[in-house]
Amino acid sequence: MDRKNAWNAYTKEQLAELNSINEKYKSCLNAGKTERECVELSVSMAEEAGYRNLKDVMSAGGSLKTGDKVYAVCMNKMIALFRIGEEPISAGMNILGAHIDSPRIDVKQNPLYENEGLAYLDTHYYGGIKKYQWVAQPLSLHGVIAKKDGTTVKVSVGEDENDPVFVITDLLVHLAQEQMEKKASKVIEGEKLDLLIGNRPAEEVIVELTSSDPADTEEKKAEKAQAKEAVKANVLRILKEKYDMDEEDFLSAELEIVPAGKARDCGFDRSMILSYGQDDRVCAFTSLFAMLDITESKKTGCCLLVDKEEIGSVGATGMHSKFFENTVAELIALTEGESELKVRRALMNSRMLSSDVSAAYDPMYAEAFEKRSSAFFGSGITFNKFTGSRGKSGSNDANAEYIAALRKAMDDDNVAYQFAELGRVDLGGGGTIAYIMANYGMEVIDSGVAVLNMHAPYEVTSKADVYEAVKGYRTFLKM
Q: How far apart, in Å, are the Cα atoms of 78 and each of 243, 422, 468?
């Protein structure tokens, strides 16, 4: 099947829109490096576009009508936006669903320790990563510290050019003969992913040791300093000054370690974007852009951005939770009157694009792909009829009739699109939130942007595909 390069068809006006969308997208990547930051950014953009918090509508005893725009948030890590359409919600919605969590490294609950004059944070990686990719590069720390008095302090260190950064160390090549003979999965062990955060001892500890026993040798003073964990004490002093944080506050903190630095243009021609977290924020932000662009539609449109997809969509903020279903029930109550049956009808009659990334064909690793069934850079938004692994295990498999309707809609709006699978049949596979939503009986297919370096600290996308994704998601919401 012929795959046309979308770049060849753009007018000057389209190129201008493409560049505008991609600059906006890069800004969102920089501002949203965690799921909490993505939700906060989404709320800000939604309210600027005239969306109201559903809780405020409910508490005021209001109702909803055609054209109204509302959003609902779950635990600051999951958000659903709705634009009420002309038809009843029970007739079905057009849903764009993406996830805003990305592979990363999390800080444990009892993390801070000192070892031979170096201070570290103990960690636990999150999602599917190649552990060796995360060492010897600048890292930043993002998250929140929740205190017993009910206050929450935001943390973001390593993004501003004046900030310090952090690092996970690697063994120097001169001593790495045995390390380099290990399997790639064992080169760096999970317990070796601790974050280096300090080396300077606290001055008050040094003063105390100096004045305590003048007869001590320098070696003895050093031994005492190590016994008192002076470097750890200095880190705690800094945390107290900056965040009013005690060591026990780590127990109720959520701190994520991600690559430091901004999204950047990639290539001499600036045709690509290099950034952390594009799986799946490239689909989340393009879905959000499309949702905020829509001004009228027959069906109620929905943009659903969820957490925990990388670890199985579990928990209260994952797609397996009842948050979305409960929110739809509230919308039904505000538009058609309370009805469990209408909630079920709304979900079953809906159509969804599970907006998730696809693996871009990489000629450097051609042996991992089946070329005829691969997604290519610059060929537009990608549809995956099924995902899963090997014998389609764990997959949603979209109906042919639904695919035909999507093809017609995309062709009518001149959206560049392609169909693909995730690599060779017996080699691996992956999953999305598609199969979960399909449990309601709705039509679902995976649709997103092709990515190189998927799950690596820095991933690559084509600006043309980002642009076509926004176009395609707009078209879907108007179907």
A: 26, 27, 25
Q: Mark residue 372 as left, alpha or beta (left: phi above 0; alpha: psi -120 to 50; beta: remaining).
A: alpha
Q: What is the pLDDT of residues 71-130, one digit of tens each?
A: 999 999 999 999 999 999 999 999 999 999 999 999 999 999 999 999 999 999 999 999
Residue type, 188: I
CB 202 within 8 A of CB 230: yes
The most distant pair of C-alpha atoms in the chain lies apart, rounded to whole Å, by 87
Name the band, by pLDDT with cuts 50, 70 and 90, for residue 429.
confident
pLDDT for 304-360, tens place per residue?
Answer: 999 999 999 999 999 999 999 999 999 999 999 999 999 999 999 999 999 999 999
Q: Torsions phi, psi of 200, nearest 5? A: -95, 125
R_g of the chain computed on alpha carbons: 25
Distances from the Cα of 168 to the Cα of 200, 258, 372, angstroms: 17, 11, 40
The CA-to-CA distance between both ends of the chain, in Å, stands at 26
Distance CA 431, CA 435 (A): 8
Q: Is a pLDDT exceeding 70 seen at residue 217? A: no
The rounded distance, in Å, linking the Cα atoms of 97 and 396 is 14
Distance, C-alpha 341 to centroid of its chain: 34
Evaluate whether 335 touches 84 at the Cβ level (below 8 Å).
yes
Domains of the chain by residue range: 6-102+276-478, 104-259
The rounded distance, in Å, linking the Cα atoms of 305 and 443 is: 18
Same fold, 6-102+276-478 and 104-259: no
Q: Report strand pairing: 93-99 vs 351-354.
A: parallel
Q: Which CATH architecture has domain 104-259?
A: Roll (2.30)
Phi, psi of 140 (to 5 degrees): -120, 165
Helix or strand or coil: residue 313?
coil
Question: Which residues 6+ apart lie within 8 Å of 393 measured at CB?
Answer: 429
Share of the chain above pLDDT 70, in %: 95
The token duo for 206 is: 């040094």
Separate counts of helices (H) and strands (E) for the chain? 13, 22
Look at the domain 6-102+276-478 and name its fold.
Answer: Aminopeptidase (3.40.630)
Closest by Cα among 166, 159, 158 to 196: 166
Give bridge partners of residue 155 from the DSSP assignment. Answer: 143
DSSP-assigned letter for residue 173: G
**Which of 198, 188, 205 is closest to 164 using CA atoms?**
198
Q: How far apart are CA 18 and CA 11, in angstroms?
A: 10
Nearest to 84 by CA among 286, 328, 287, 438: 328
pLDDT band at 223 (very low <50, low <70, confident <90, very high): low
